TrEMBL record:
Keywords: Transferase. This is Formyl-CoA:oxalate CoA-transferase. The keyword Transferase applies. One of its GO terms (molecular function) is formyl-CoA transferase activity.
Length: 437
């Protein structure tokens, strides 16, 4: 039995860069047939962005387009519009992430597609919600992070580096793709009942804001009492009227920090994150492991509220403990005692850890040719009865003839589409022959 959850589902993927492609790649890995529409001769912008070799698609493209088919199609030509219409009439899901207004201008906005195929679910990604004052803006990752509260609350809270800072995680891009996937899968379940497809609109802003929920919690608290006990600014520093940048404090009420370890001067990632939980029992275990038993009877430290008031002393003493050990030694010592702890891992350490090659966490895909094998991040969850098969990414237009044939186009028509610029770049005009010659 084929347990691929989306087997038999056809997706027309009119997306590029990262946000949309991350969604459609996940749909492909869950078993959907994904046909990626790419501009003839151009393709997804990431194909030629940050390349390691001018003849190969970049790792950026390779990370986001596995298991898809590529159909080159100029949707601005009459033939291109006719082909896209046919594709839409027989698909289950249509996804696009062009700049605001572009897909309507092409004639394939929600209303038009819904008329063509009422069963089709329509997923769209834009920078901002429709009602937003910024809804007409083009958007890339940082635009989402700076407008959704991520950048203003991330980074250092004093000194020269007290500037809004971006997360290395793609909160605006891939995170938006994952949010759209949730919406599209909900729409698929809904269609089982209604028989009709719906419009799923996902803004990068809202996807990013959804991950900043604890910052809205902090704003509400700040508005009420004027301070936030878990922040480095408490109790001695000043709070303004908005949630400040929090450095390396933990997002919840437990007391955490990133500590330097023995090799920090030579290794930029020899750091460890250590958390003191609030409960008395957990604190006791941590004190035994750290050798800080005197804290158990010291009123400055033996309750969570007291530790919040003396967090600078807590941080300084745990720092002394960590500096004589590597991040792995600290992790082993404290984790054995049940203390929440984790080493700061570099991308190199993550990608060379054999434990991560468990079939899903990190996967190796054989792309063939000059590229050979590359590593990517697999489906981030596992299912007890389904294992994705991770395949290569398509060449630009690599499936054009195959897809057009499956829609009944003849070899002759397919050749004509290539000649008239619908599926391939128009051949360059040759100069007129010299009449005298
Ligand atoms: C990412 C973004 C900023 C890029 O903007 P852009 O450089 O204008 O590129 P777009 O792909 O949107 O559109 C470029 C043009 O190509 C056209 N185009 C794209 N694919 C096409 C195709 N297959 N056939 C014909 N035309 C096509 C578009 O219609 C548009 O034409 P227009 O300028 O005449 O309206 C913009 O698409 C955007 O804001 N998207 C929404 C948010 C998003 O997903 N951002 C990316 C995060 S990773």
């Amino acid at each position: 039995m084929n347990t691929a959850p989306l087997q038999g589902i056809k997706v027309i993927d009119f997306t590029e860069v990262q946000s949309g492609p991350s969604c459609t790649q996940l749909l492909a890995w869950l078993g959907a047939e994904v046909i990626k529409i790419e501009r003839p001769g151009v393709g997804d912008a990431t194909r030629n962005e940050l390349q390691f070799d001018p003849d190969c698609p970049s790792y950026y493209f390779l990370q986001l387009n596995s298991n898809k088919k590529s159909l080159t199609l100029d949707a601005k030509t009459p033939d291109g519009k006719e082909i896209l219409t046919k594709l839409i009439q027989s698909c289950d899901i249509f996804i696009e992430n062009l700049h605001p207004g572009a897909i309507d201008k092409l004639g394939f906005g929600w209303d038009a597609v819904h008329k063509l195929n009422p069963k089709c679910i329509y997923g769209t990604i834009k920078g901002f919600p429709v009602a937003s004052q910024y809804s007409s803006l083009k958007a890339y990752e940082p635009v989402a992070q700076v407008t959704a509260g991520a950048a203003s609350t991330t980074g250092w809270y004093e000194g020269d580096y007290n500037i809004p800072t971006q997360s290395g995680a793609a909160l605006g891009d891939s995170n938006t793709g994952m949010h759209l996937t949730i919406g599209v899968l909900a729409a698929l379940a809904q269609r089982e009942k209604t028989g009709e497809g719906c419009y799923v609109y996902q803004s990068m802003h809202n996807a990013c804001l959804n991950l900043c929920r604890i910052k809205t919690r902090d704003q509400l608290t700040l508005d009420r009492i004027g301070y936030l006990t878990q922040f480095p600014q408490y109790p001695d520093g000043k709070f303004g009227d908005c949630v400040p940048r929090s450095g390396n404090t933990e997002g919840s009420g437990v007391l955490g920090w990133t500590y330097k370890c023995k090799n920090w001067a030579n290794d930029p990632n020899d750091y460890v994150y250590v958390i003191l939980q609030r409960g008395a029992k957990d604190f006791e275990l941590a004190c035994h492991a750290l050798g800080f038993d005197d804290w158990l009877t010291n009123p400055n430290f033996n309750t969570a509220d007291a530790r919040d008031k003396h967090k600078n002393e807590v941080w300084a003493r745990i720092q002394e403990f960590c500096i004589t050990k590597t991040k792995f030694e600290v992790t082993e010592l404290l984790s054995k005692a049940g203390v929440p702890v984790g080493p700061v891992l570099s991308t190199k350490e993550i990608m060379t850890d054999p434990h991560n090659y468990d079939g899903n966490t990190l996967v190796k895909i054989d792309q063939g040719g000059k590229i050979g094998e590359f590593v990517t991040v697999g489906v981030p969850f596992t299912m007890s009865n389904y294992q994705p098969v991770y395949g290569p990414c398509p060449d630009l237009g690599g499936n054009t003839a195959e897809v057009l044939k499956s829609y009944g186009y003849t070899d002759q028509q397919i050749a004509e589409f290539a000649k008239n610029g619908t599926t391939s770049p128009m051949p360059k005009e040759t100069s007129a022959p010299d009449k005298k010659a």
